[in-house]
Amino acid sequence: MDRSTNPATLQALVLRDGTVTTIAPDAVDGYGGTGFVWLHAEGVGHGAPLDLPAHVPDMAASALLAGETRPRCDEIGDAVLINLRGTGANPPPDSDGLVSIRVWVEARRVTSASRHRLAALDKVEAAMRAGRFTDGGDFVAALAQAISTELDPQVARLGDDLDECEAVLDDGDIYEMRRRIARLRSEAIMLRRFVAPDRDALSEMAQLQFEWISKEDRLHLREAADRFARMAEELEAVRERAALLHEQLTDLRAEMVDRRSLAIAVVAFIFLPLTFVTGLLGMNVDGIPFAHERWAFWGVVGFCIAIAVVVMGWFAYRQWLDD
């Protein structure tokens, strides 16, 4: 099988006796020493071809180098292929802000690949350099904890932003708020697409029966899965609240249009009889009553005012002027 794909930078670390050392990536496949080995390929899909070590099966290699992935967990022989999504350290501007990491997990060796830098990898590397890993179960548990920790504030921010929109619902700019709520709802939908599968993948791995997945590792995996489940529920709540707020904004806009239409109708109704009177008396024909009287102009003005007062009084009696 041709395992070549676009460019990547390779880094191989070995944790032995509490000390981390760097080895050549091409030495990982034939490494026969003790300790835990981690090979990471970053930038997959951007440049020169990349050959994965021969210890990675063809099916797993295809999954590690795939252009599009979704969170999943598959048991293959005595190893596990797990894909997760998390916050990117420097995601491309046209992306959703999440990047994938694909991991081939063996008892004493882990091979991972990503197209873009995952923010959680810094914590995972720090944990390895601190000597906390003894097997693949420790690695995945630490990775899951780091990804969920990085993503949690982003999900909480969506809820906080929606709370702010609810607080200024009656006083804010309706059109600007509709754009903001639509953006929050879109972001919540996008995040939930991957948060829920992350939960499923970790839950499935916690149930695998491998000796190198310890009881403590299973506990950490379930804890991370539970955090992803909580985030998925919160994202669902954000989506539903955003839809409800959008409906309320639509109702507010309709009420505002109705009030303005009523004001226009009231003004038009007041001036309708006045327009009739002034038009009738403004005809340039003989026979208009009191045309040559000195008080005629003010008399017509007073009559128009009286009509306006009567019409306004009738509107007030019918409560048409109430806001």
Question: Which terms would index this structure?
Answer:
6 helices; 323 residues; Methane Monooxygenase Hydroxylase, Chain G, domain 1; disordered N terminus; Beta Polymerase, domain 2; alpha+beta; single chain
Task: Explain how this protein is built.
The chain is α+β, with helices and mostly antiparallel strands. It has two domains: 9-252, 2-Layer Sandwich (Beta Polymerase, domain 2), CATH 3.30.460; 255-317, Methane Monooxygenase Hydroxylase, Chain G, domain 1. It is built from six helices and seven strands, in the order βββαββββααααα. A seven-stranded mixed β-sheet has the order 2-1-3-7-6-5-4, sandwiched between helices. Strand 6 (98-105) and strand 7 form a beta hairpin. Helix 2 (121-129) runs antiparallel to helix 3 (136-167), helix 3 (136-167) runs antiparallel to helix 4 (174-206) and helix 3 (136-167) packs parallel to helix 5 (215-281). The protein is rod-shaped, with a radius of gyration of 35 Å. The N and C termini lie far apart (75 Å). The relative contact order is 0.09. Mean pLDDT is 84; it is low at 1-6.
